[in-house]
TrEMBL record:
<dbReference type="InterPro" id="IPR014746">
    <property type="entry name" value="Gln_synth/guanido_kin_cat_dom"/>
</dbReference>
<keyword id="KW-0547">Nucleotide-binding</keyword>
<keyword id="KW-0436">Ligase</keyword>
<comment type="function">
    <text>ATP-dependent carboxylate-amine ligase which exhibits weak glutamate--cysteine ligase activity.</text>
</comment>
<feature type="region of interest" description="Disordered">
    <location>
        <begin position="30"/>
        <end position="52"/>
    </location>
</feature>
<protein>
    <recommendedName>
        <fullName>Putative glutamate--cysteine ligase 2</fullName>
        <ecNumber>6.3.2.2</ecNumber>
    </recommendedName>
</protein>
<comment type="similarity">
    <text>Belongs to the glutamate--cysteine ligase type 2 family. YbdK subfamily.</text>
</comment>
<keyword id="KW-0067">ATP-binding</keyword>
<dbReference type="InterPro" id="IPR050141">
    <property type="entry name" value="GCL_type2/YbdK_subfam"/>
</dbReference>
<dbReference type="InterPro" id="IPR006336">
    <property type="entry name" value="GCS2"/>
</dbReference>
<dbReference type="GO" id="GO:0005524">
    <property type="term" value="F:ATP binding"/>
</dbReference>
<feature type="compositionally biased region" description="Basic and acidic residues">
    <location>
        <begin position="32"/>
        <end position="50"/>
    </location>
</feature>
<dbReference type="GO" id="GO:0042398">
    <property type="term" value="P:modified amino acid biosynthetic process"/>
</dbReference>
<dbReference type="InterPro" id="IPR011793">
    <property type="entry name" value="YbdK"/>
</dbReference>
<dbReference type="Pfam" id="PF04107">
    <property type="entry name" value="GCS2"/>
</dbReference>
<dbReference type="GO" id="GO:0004357">
    <property type="term" value="F:glutamate-cysteine ligase activity"/>
</dbReference>
């Protein structure tokens, strides 16, 4: 069975819902409690080594001081992913509380914020080199790692899953607000992220050597700082034998993150089987995939998506159902079919994190209430614990 791990970026917010630069203090608390990353790992990350997070579970810094990152250990089952995410969200929140704040699984801040860059040489270089793009960005994503045999299998997987990645953006959409305004997008994080020059979809690769040649050519342009800044929607890990899928918003609810992890593992296994069976790499130009990703960020699950097989607009619910059917044999073999099917049904019934945020705003007229609901949903699982709004 393929193993998996999940990394989540989380906002650190005050009682008024404003992101506050207490991430470093919260991480210092976590380190004293044995929950934070060690100094060597932090230094390696700041030097720009790709995938610098330790293999074990951790809390770690991010580009902005109003964020922290959590990472699960390597997991074999979705039940483990669920338990680990709940545990590390609780540990992150406890550390934030000690610093006078809370954590919120929001992919952008609903209220206006002035992002503060975390201290560190590499973070400073990002701001120096990329200017307003680096100064503005305060976004939180979710990255899912799934094990592969080697880089050859990993590239065969990347070639086949790339068509489905916009669907993952749609189902995790959790960022409708930016600087206090409704953006009219379900995932505005995905739009902001595209400002980085190395972000987005890729074309197919001939083999692992072809993939690595492209990465080397990108580095030789002098535009990206290092391999860690190769921000493809899905990429090979530079340090671990995994494929890393990076297209999702951080999910508001743990159960949606678990559904995402199950679908990603199902996609990886389905793609690897197809490659072993000699299946052809599906054709879709990266320009069309970029349009599909934009569409997913614009409407989430509430409108049409570009269907990965036809390139035509189809209702999002139908596309998500087709994704489930595409990976169903792999889900069944991993024992994930019931849990992921139920998770997809729940998403289609109650909507995404973006849908919840907008319902709370409509019910209360208050973006602070949106953040309170998100804080409750992040650790307690029930946004109604903070505000009387439909979940």
């Amino acid at each position: 069975m393929r193993t998996m791990g999940v990394e989540e970026e989380l906002l650190v917010v005050d009682a008024d819902g404003v992101p506050v630069p207490e991430g470093p203090e919260a991480l210092a608390v976590a380190a004293r409690r044995g929950d934070g990353e060690d100094v060597e790992q932090h230094d390696r990350a700041d030097r720009g080594d790709a995938d610098a997070a330790p293999e074990t579970a951790h809390l770690a810094p991010e580009l902005k001081a109003q964020q922290v990152e959590l990472g699960t250990p390597v997991c074999e089952t979705l039940a483990e992913v669920d338990a680990q995410l709940r545990h590390w969200r609780e540990r992150a929140d406890a550390a934030a509380l000690a610093a006078g704040a809370r954590i919120a699984a929001l992919a952008t801040s609903p209220v206006a914020v002035d992002p503060v860059t975390t201290a560190g040489e590499r973070y400073g270089r990002l701001v120096d080199d990329f200017g307003q793009t680096a100064r503005d960005v305060l976004t939180c994503g979710c990255h899912v790692h799934v094990s592969v045999a080697d880089d050859e299998e990993g590239v065969a997987v990347l070639n086949r899953i790339r068509l489905w990645l916009p669907v993952l953006t749609a189902m995790t959409a959790n960022s409708p607000y930016w600087q206090g305004q409704d953006t009219a997008y379900a995932s505005f994080r995905s739009q902001v992220w595209q400002r980085w020059p190395s972000a987005g979809p890729t074309g197919p690769f001939a083999d692992a050597a072809d993939y690595h040649r492209l990465v080397d050519a990108m580095l030789q342009t002098g535009t990206v700082l290092d391999a860690g800044m190769v921000y493809f929607d899905a990429r090979l890990s530079a340090r671990w034998p995994t494929v890393e899928v990076r297209s999702a918003d951080v999910a508001l609810r743990v159960e949606d993150a678990v559904t995402l992890a199950g679908l990603v593992r199902g996609l990886v296994e389905t793609a690897a089987r197809d490659a072993r069976d000699g299946g052809a790499v599906p054709e879709m130009r990266p320009e069309i995939l970029r349009l599909a990703a934009w569409r997913a960020g614009r409407s989430g699950l509430s409108g049409d998506l570009v269907h990965p097989r036809t390139g035509r607009p189809v209702a999002a619910a139908a596309v998500l159902t087709d994704l489930l059917e595409h990976v169903r044999p792999a889900l069944a073999d991993a024992g994930d079919e019931e849990r992921v099917s139920d998770g997809v049904a729940a998403l289609l019934s109650r909507g995404t994190g973006a849908d919840l945020q907008r319902r709370v705003r409509q019910d209360t007229g208050d973006l602070t209430a949106v953040v309170r609901a998100a804080v409750a949903a992040t650790t307690e699982g029930d946004p109604r614990a903070a505000v009387g709004a439909s979940s």
